[in-house]
């Protein structure tokens, strides 16, 4: 098998395979699938060795796409568990299933698999079950086995343009340095070239599965084509460019009037104005000083009491990012935090909706909160850690994250 063979699923996603990897996507394995079904359930990619049983892989593919559920994680867990039980040797050849649906990447696999993300100058673990107790920063869920199948783990990540993922085994990931991944991410090299470069540090005698996935043209909000116009609907009037204003600018007139007012006031009051002082008078005319208002202040004792309760660093919002534009009836607010939530502690998510709606506060132990759309417009959200022993009066244990504003519009009809 050639080094760095590449598969282009569409214009946005490119996949490069190492020499010991199964080079096939779900659509390649199950060629009788309807394209619309693949689009709805996502593109399935498997981290498997090239000597895996084709019959077991074909069964897994048909079981996933044939399931009536469109919930990716539970469906993948069911299909993988059943495949491992029916094919005991599959555990040594199939390690992880990855599904790309929209901007979300779903990962389900065994403890031997590792997925690392390289984004600009940052490399982080997205999927590594053994890193769960050593500062693992992405939510990872364990699915214990009740039979001969191995324990499975799952997570989900939302990609952006420029993301590059390394999907391989832990033994291979230990040989690939962070510097090499950062350099490949900066250079925006094609996946087959990245695979070929990384393979130089791996033993050639026993090639292990290795996949590079690059999201080269994904933007956080993809363009949605305009729906077809129903028959009988009148054609909208053509856009006529606004003519340029003719004549004297009103700003010039306002400036001259302001200058005349300043000179008249100086003449009427007998004030002597030097030429170099005229710009200052005009500035006072157009931008008068605001009226000062009283600002409430806290006593030193209240400030010290509030500061003493801050024991954690603030969580970091991940998605939607500041300034993003999203569509759909639901949106997931996702954040990162380095620690573990203790008994009685919660994440407090504050959301301010458009249109003057009162802010909504939600307490949760998860690192994600699903939000139902109230109205179109700009939303603002923050997250902090609180002591929720008394849910009606939570006490802040961290400062709030920086506010994130994103625009939420209705989906196209």
Give a quick rundown of the structure.
This protein has helices at residues 26-29, 35-41, 54-66, 72-86, 170-173, 178-187, 191-198, 250-269, 278-286, 300-308, and strands at 5-8, 13-17, 43-48, 94-101, 104-109, 113-119, 122-127, 141-143, 152-158, 164-169, 210-215, 316-319, 325-327, 330-336, 345-352, 360-364, 368-372, 377-387, 395-396, 404-409. With 413 residues, the chain is of the alpha+beta class.
What order do the helices and strands come in, and which of them pair?
Blueprint: E1 5-8, E2 13-17, H1 26-29, H2 35-41, E3 43-48, H3 54-66, H4 72-86, E4 94-101, E5 104-109, E6 113-119, E7 122-127, E8 141-143, E9 152-158, E10 164-169, H5 170-173, H6 178-187, H7 191-198, E11 210-215, H8 250-269, H9 278-286, H10 300-308, E12 316-319, E13 325-327, E14 330-336, E15 345-352, E16 360-364, E17 368-372, E18 377-387, E19 395-396, E20 404-409
Parallel strand pairs: 13-20
Antiparallel strand pairs: 1-2, 2-11, 3-4, 4-5, 5-9, 6-7, 6-10, 8-9, 10-11, 12-14, 14-17, 15-16, 15-18, 18-19, 18-20
Helix pairs in contact: 3-4, 8-9
């Amino acid at each position: 098998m050639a080094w760095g063979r590449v598969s282009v699923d569409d214009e946005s996603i490119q996949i490069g395979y190492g020499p010991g990897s199964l080079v096939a996507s779900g659509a390649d394995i199950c060629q009788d699938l309807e394209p619309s079904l693949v689009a709805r359930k996502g593109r399935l990619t498997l981290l498997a060795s090239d000597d895996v049983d084709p019959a077991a892989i074909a069964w897994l593919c048909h079981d996933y796409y044939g399931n009536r559920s469109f919930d990716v994680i539970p469906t993948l867990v069911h299909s993988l568990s059943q495949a491992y039980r029916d094919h005991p040797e599959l555990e040594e050849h199939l390690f992880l299933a990855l599904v790309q649906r929209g901007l979300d990447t779903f990962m389900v696999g065994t403890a031997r698999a590792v997925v690392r993300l390289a984004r600009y100058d940052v490399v982080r673990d997205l999927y590594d079950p053994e890193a769960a107790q050593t500062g693992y920063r992405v939510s990872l869920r364990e699915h214990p086995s009740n039979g001969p199948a191995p324990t499975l783990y799952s997570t989900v990540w939302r990609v952006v343009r420029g993301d590059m993922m390394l999907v391989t085994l832990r033994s291979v990931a230990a040989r690939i340095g962070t510097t090499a991944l950062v350099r490949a991410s900066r250079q925006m090299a094609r996946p087959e070239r990245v695979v070929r470069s990384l393979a130089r540090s791996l033993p050639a005698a026993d090639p292990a599965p290795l996949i590079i996935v690059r999201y080269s043209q994904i933007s956080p909000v993809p363009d949605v084509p305009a729906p077809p116009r129903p028959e009988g609907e009148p054609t909208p009037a053509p856009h006529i460019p606004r003519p340029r204003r003719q004549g004297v600018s009103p700003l010039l007139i306002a400036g001259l009037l302001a200058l005349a007012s300043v000179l008249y006031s100086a003449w009427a009051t007998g004030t002597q104005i030097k030429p170099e002082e005229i710009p200052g008078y005009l500035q006072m005319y157009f931008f008068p000083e605001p009226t000062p208002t009283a600002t409430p202040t806290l006593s030193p004792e209240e400030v010290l009491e509030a500061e003493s309760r801050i024991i954690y660093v603030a969580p970091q919002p991940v998605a939607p990012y500041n300034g993003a534009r999203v569509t759909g009836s639901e949106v997931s607010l996702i954040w990162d935090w380095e620690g573990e939530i203790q008994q009685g502690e919660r994440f407090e998510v504050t959301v301010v909706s458009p249109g003057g709606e009162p802010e909504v506060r939600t307490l949760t132990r998860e690192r994600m909160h699903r939000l139902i759309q109230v109205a179109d417009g700009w939303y603002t959200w923050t997250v902090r850690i609180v002591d929720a022993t008394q849910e009606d009066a939570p006490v802040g244990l961290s400062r709030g994250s920086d506010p994130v504003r994103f625009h939420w519009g209705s989906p196209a009809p």
